[in-house]
Design a protein that fits this description.
With 283 residues, this protein is an alpha/beta fold. It has a single domain, classed as TIM Barrel (Alpha-Beta Barrel). It has an 8-stranded parallel beta sheet with strand order 1-2-3-4-5-6-7-8. β5, α5 and β6 form a beta-alpha-beta unit. It is globular, with a radius of gyration of 18 Å.
């Protein structure tokens, strides 16, 4: 069983064939996906999709959405977390974090949203799914101020020292398509050398396509696309297996277990429990 710990199945890129995307994932052995929200406008979409596809979801406000988020966005998130606190498919607060790569963003607003969402995670007892882009130290600073029950540092590309700090706080470190590029030396070194207990797998579908789906700028100009999808996860996992000298089946088992440990509610979804009724849209 493979677990895709980060997949934006609600993205418009999947609109024309979402059911087929899910079917391909299941056929490939991806039996669980985690669908993080990025802003209040897609809270209902990810929640309903999680129920429709036997997946899990997270609710949060992405740092790239902070600038356009309404002034009451954090209140909306708090209300949604309270309304669905007993939903077993709600496994985290996310995708939240800091982005210090994209120019022109309001970093003070990002940080305010990040810290407020850490407080909500602490209040609800949920782990977090973190967006980490040139911001690992700043994220860790926030975690030292506001402790939360672990989670996943998505698309991790920090240092070994930073990785150790996240792992010590109960975080899994997400690896996906970027790891498949032979020139991604830092990411591949991390994937090879970090303790097995720190590794989780993700696709970030439809983004971060693996090497075999990559398109050059010229290809894209000519109309070629490179949509990533959850069915690619076993092949991504096979790259991790080769880097570490393990069998793919072993990597599937250990990364799935690591995801369950980082997001404990995932474990309960594997049990034959009744499905929580789906409530209507948040008001």
């Amino acid at each position: 069983m493979w677990i895709d710990s980060h997949c934006h199945l609600d993205a418009p890129e999947f609109g024309p064939d979402r059911a087929a995307v899910v079917a391909r994932a299941r056929a490939a052995g991806v039996l669980r996906m985690v669908l993080p929200a990025v802003e209040p406008s897609n809270f209902d979409a990810v929640r309903l999709l999680a129920h429709e596809t036997d997946s899990a979801y997270a609710l949060g406000i992405h740092p790239l959405a902070a600038d356009r988020a309404p002034d009451d966005a954090l209140d909306i998130l708090q209300a949604a977390l309270a309304a669905h606190r007993d939903d077993p498919r709600l496994v985290a607060v996310g995708e939240i974090g800091l982005d210090h790569f994209v120019p022109g963003l309001d970093r003070a607003r990002q940080e305010r949203f990040y810290l407020a969402q850490l407080k909500l995670a602490r209040q609800t007892g949920l782990p977090v799914i973190l967006h980490v882009r040139r911001s690992a130290d700043a994220l860790l600073k926030g975690l030292r101020r506001i402790e939360v029950p672990g989670g996943i540092a998505h698309a991790f590309n920090g240092s070994v020292v930073q990785a150790g700090h996240f792992a010590a706080r109960g975080f899994g470190l997400g690896f996906g398509g970027a790891m498949t590029f032979e020139r991604a030396l830092q990411i591949r070194a991390l994937a090879t050398g970090l303790p097995e207990s720190a590794l989780v797998l993700e696709t970030d579908s439809p983004d971060i396509p693996p090497q075999w789906l990559y398109r050059t700028a010229a290809d894209r100009k000519a109309g070629a696309t490179s949509r990533n999808e959850p069915a690619e996860l076993p092949r991504i996992g096979a790259v991790l297996a080769a880097l570490r000298g393990l069998a793919p089946e072993a990597v599937a088992a250990l990364t799935a277990e690591n995801a369950r440990r980082a997001l404990p509610r995932l474990r309960a979804l594997d049990l034959p429990t009744p499905v929580c009724p789906v409530a209507g849209p948040d008001r």
